[in-house]
Design goal:
Blueprint (H helix, E strand, L loop, with lengths): L8 H7 L11 H6 L5 E5 L2 E4 L4 E4 L2 H4 L8 H13 L12 H13 L5 E7 L2 H18 L7 E5 L8 H6 L16 E4 L14 H19 L4 E6 L15 H11 L3 E5 L13 H4 L6 E4 L11 E6 H9 L17 H16 L2 H22 L3 E5 L6 E5 L12 H12 L2 E2 L1 E3 L2 E4 L7 H20 L1
Bound molecules: pyridoxal-5'-phosphate (PLP).
The site of pyridoxal-5'-phosphate has 14 residues, from helix 6.
């Protein structure tokens, strides 16, 4: 395999975290605990600079759905680089890959009622795009007072200013305030911890819906542009709502003229065991934000999909207000579009939701068995495709989060024993490639078992 770097391993290890700041990490912490240097990936395995090879339980970052060896995507990227490595799609020009992909995406999302694409460079851009176009939609309609956004606590929508403002976790917000005015949050359908002390998922869904109705009445329906939610909350710790939840949110939005933005950055393209998260719950959103697995993580790319209702209003506007003053240099990047075309074809050919559902059930049941064995596990969440989490506690009765070294020790021991797992606060989150096999899931479960055993000793 050709080597792409110019320096040897010692140089790379010595410079690790010295000249770069890592996202979602304290710079000093990265320097005192240098991150694992991953140098190779094949199938669902990654190998580090010391030659240690493990199953990647994280799937890159919820994005390498087809694994690290997807040749058709690599070939499409390489061919596109040879033919046309870049051309803009700002007004007046386009490129052939971007056009073809828009047709394919419209076919793919037809059952979700989504018919137009706006291209972006990633998930945060997709969220920003949907928020901005939602406001513009109401302005075109002559309802310019609808500017506010409502979202879920525990929700994750990236770290752009708009995304952070609708984000539902203080750790992505506090140090960056003041954020966008006009953003409000309601409780998440999180049965393990919620202000209602309600553990029944269906009843909790009702209570969250009532909180949304209450917030809408308090703000005034005609001040609200959109409600944004993930069909299954991901980075907030994998929180699958009750099946009634998203349909209820859709109904409430409809009743009050509020647009529904589905943040499908993780859930689109099969992760939940359905082709999209919205389809998983039988809901048709007004916008769906996608990115990540659209190119299998091989190229930074995203697409916001829009419903016929949105499309009709913008396309028939005669006032000029529908001119789009939004976009990115890399919107519709031909290499990203070519990667996405090949990725979509592979995703469909392999029928990945089928395996995601089966392996997701295997993983979830495995986690439930681990919960019987280890007091350290307070909650297990999943059962909807390959998004599964353990929430660690130091005391099951009080649900006190564990001391900081505990999840880190678990992660280190799991890695030593064959699997890369992700730790976020007290949560251990698993989101492997959707093409993972039964025995590879078993490898993750046994690595976690060993990790839990070591962490329980602390
Ligand atoms: C639901 C959701 N929305 C938005 C984002 C932000 O995407 P990106 O990191 O590509 O900007 C993420 C990233 O994990 C996500 O999970």
């Amino acid at each position: 395999m050709p080597e792409t770097r110019q320096q040897d391993d010692n140089f790379i290890k010595e410079k690790n975290a010295r000249h770069l700041w890592h996202p979602m990490a304290h710079p000093a912490d990265s320097q005192s605990h240098p991150p694992t240097i991953v140098t190779r990936g094949e199938g669902v395995f990654i190998t580090d600079i010391d030659g240690h090879r493990v199953v990647d339980g994280v799937g890159g970052l919820w994005n390498v759905n087809l694994g690290f060896s997807c040749e058709p995507i690599k070939q499409a990227i390489s061919d596109q680089l040879d033919r046309l490595p870049y051309y803009s799609i700002f007004r007046g020009t386009t490129n052939d890959a971007a056009v073809e992909l828009s047709y394919e995406l419209a076919q793919f999302f037809e059952p979700d009622g989504l018919q137009r694409a706006f291209y972006t460079s990633g998930g945060g851009d997709s969220v920003e795009t949907a928020l901005r176009l939602a406001r513009q939609y109401h302005k075109i309609r002559g309802d310019a007072g609808r500017v506010k956004f409502i979202s879920l606590k525990k929700g994750y929508h990236g770290t752009h200013m708009g995304g952070a403002s609708v984000n539902g976790d203080a750790k992505f917000r506090t140090q960056y305030e003041p954020l966008l005015p006009g953003c409000y949050h309601i409780p998440a359908p999180y049965t393990y911890r919620n202000p209602f002390d309600e553990t029944d998922p269906a009843r909790l869904a009702q209570l969250c819906a009532a909180a949304l109705v209450d917030e809408i009445a308090f703000q005034g329906p005609n001040t609200i542009a959109a409600f944004i939610m993930e069909p299954v909350l991901g980075a907030g710790g994998v929180i699958p709502p009750h099946e009634s939840f998203m349909p209820m949110m859709r109904d409430i939005c409809d009743k009050h003229g509020i647009l529904l933005i589905a943040d499908e950055v993780i859930t689109a393209f099969g992760r939940t065991g359905s082709w999209s998260g919205s389809r998983h719950w039988g809901v048709k959103p007004d916008f769906a934000c996608t990115a990540k697995a659209i190119t299998n993580g091989y190229f930074p790319f995203g697409a916001v999909m829009m419903s016929e209702k949105i499309a009709q209003l913008f396309e028939h506007d005669e006032t000029g207000k529908a001119a789009i003053g939004h976009g990115y240099t890399y919107s519709g990047h031909p290499v990203g579009a070519a990667a996405a075309l090949a990725c979509l074809a592979e995703t469909k050919r392999l029928d990945v939701p089928l395996n995601a559902a089966k392996r997701g059930t295997q993983m979830y049941e495995g986690f439930l068995r681990l919960q019987e064995k280890y007091e350290l596990i307070g909650d297990v969440r999943g059962g909807h495709g390959l998004m599964t989490a353990l929430e660690l506690v130091s005391d099951r009765k009080t649900k006190t989060p564990p001391a900081k070294p505990v999840p880190l020790a678990l992660q280190a021991a799991a890695y030593e024993n064959g699997a890369m797992v992700r730790v976020s606060g007290p949560n251990v989150i698993l989101s492997p490639a959707l093409v993972i096999s039964e025995s590879e899931v078993e490898t993750i479960l046994s690595a976690l078992d060993k990790g839990l055993a070591e962490a329980s000793e602390l």
